[in-house]
Amino acid sequence: MEQLSINQIKTWDRFYRGNFINSLSGFKSVSLIGTASLSGIPNLAIFSNIVHLGADPALIGFVNRPVEAAPHTLENIRETKSYTINHIHPEIYQQAHQTSAKYPKGCSEFEKTGLTPDWQIGVKSPFVKESKIRYALELEEIVPIRQNRTFLVIGAITSVFLDSLLIDKDGFINIDQANSITSLGLDGYYKVEKIDRLPYAKVATD
Amino acid sequence: MEQLSINQIKTWDRFYRGNFINSLSGFKSVSLIGTASLSGIPNLAIFSNIVHLGADPALIGFVNRPVEAAPHTLENIRETKSYTINHIHPEIYQQAHQTSAKYPKGCSEFEKTGLTPDWQIGVKSPFVKESKIRYALELEEIVPIRQNRTFLVIGAITSVFLDSLLIDKDGFINIDQANSITSLGLDGYYKVEKIDRLPYAKVATD
Questions:
Q1: Cβ pair B112, A1 in contact under 8 A
Q2: Which of A34, A78, A103, B115 has the fewest CB atoms inside 10 Å of its own CB, making it the most exposed?
Q3: Do A52 and B25 make contact, defined as CB atoms within 8 angstroms?
Q4: What is the C-alpha separation between A136 and A146, in angstroms, rounded?
């Protein structure tokens, strides 16, 4: 085992360092975020830094890069307060990845990648029809991270679409049975295999 | 595919709802966080809501539950400004999960679970010796999430320990080759298998 100090890491080429730091923190909840402008032009972008914040209220966060690097999703969310999060499966990971290309504003990544927008009554943002687990959120708050000009975008879940056969008797969703994938770094995609579910951990009373 | 509205979800039993919402957002960067009190008593706790914030500076965030539910890690980080994050592998996932039991303050989860603290010069918090990828952080900021009394704890990476054979020629870390696992919900553990790494996505110029 080798020790690398941050002073060494800082001397690395920025792409090398970016790949290294991005994969260090582990596997990610990669998903497609669907939004629309006020005039209804759909936008779709892949995000991997999605984080569970709490179940009651049901809150999910995601990290948006500095606004000049990834402006359209954040701009649409600011305007409509609405977005969808859609799981990715092996059949669509290449199209999902392609949404990260820098398409100009007003250009629909659905059209460019061949993914299908799915509009639902009462939701201003499109879902991804090919996604087997998808949910809609309403913006709660955009928290600026002052250290690096990123944003933690906090949303409240408003509705969920999935096959109810995926839900265990205790509410746990077997997203592996929908073949939802996970990602690593900026461009690694992985399928998963269940090891185990463990019971609630208790202090031994011996 | 079934639609579930948040109003339906709110009527569910809180454990059922907790399992459901916790697994909806996808696979997580589950890891063990090592800390120590000012007097040097080690603490170890499993956290799954870990999120990459940026590569330059190298920042990682994790979500800490309301302080009364998970006080010791946060208290130690406040005191020493130091913590370690340690990947989990199939050989230690049961011990890792057991750290979530509500041990009293001053009781070392290392001792209780049989995991081995590994102290390194210049780092005030213990690493987990059994972990094959581990890194130390210095506290940057604790951001309160006002919606649910959780905290986003932001840390700057100060050093990384891993086998350099895991690092690809472009800096990407093949954490799957170290058998690092991912988690789902509160208690599901999964191993991963690589599908692919994709090249940087570009807008087609035809």
A1: no
A2: A78
A3: yes
A4: 28
Distance from A42 to chain B by nearest Cα, in Å? 17
Closest chain A residue to B139 measured between Cα atoms?
A147
| A126: closest CA of chain B, how far (Å) | 15
Counting as low any pLDDT under 70, the low residues of chain B are 206
Q: Which two tokens stand for residue A12?
A: 């690395």
pLDDT in tens, B155-184: 999 999 999 999 999 999 999 999 999 999
Asked whether the beta carbons of A115 and A130 are under 8 A apart, the reply is yes
Q: Which CATH number fits domain A28-190: 2.30.110.10, 3.40.50.300, 1.10.10.10, 3.40.190.10?
A: 2.30.110.10
Contact A162 B2 (CB under 8 A): yes
pLDDT at A58 over 60: yes
CB pairs under 8 A between A and B: 357
pLDDT band of residue A205 (cuts 50, 70, 90) is: confident
User: Per-residue DSSP letters for A87-115?
Assistant: E--TTTHHHHHHTTS-PPTT--HHHHHT-
Q: What is the pLDDT, as a whole number, of residue B17?
A: 98
- What is the per-residue pLDDT across A132-170, written as a single tens digit (0 to 9) for each? 999 999 999 999 999 999 999 999 999 999 999 999 999
Choose the closest CB to A1 out of B90, B161, B173.
Answer: B161
Contacts of B159 in chain A (CB under 8 A): 3-6
Q: Of B9, B19, B21, B128, which to mutate for an interface test with A (greatest number of A Cβ within 10 Å)?
A: B21
Cis bond upstream, residue A57 (ω within 30): yes
- What are the pLDDT digits (tens) for A106-126? 899 999 999 999 999 999 999
- For chain A, the domains span 28-190
**A110, A84 Cβ separation under 8 angstroms:** no
Q: What would the 3-class secondary structure string for A142-153 be?
A: EEEECCCCEEEE
Residues from chain B that touch A61, judged by Cβ atoms under 8 A, are: 51, 63, 145, 152
Which chain A residue lies closest to B144 (C-alpha atoms)?
Answer: A143
ipTM: 0.97
For chain A, give the mean pLDDT. 96
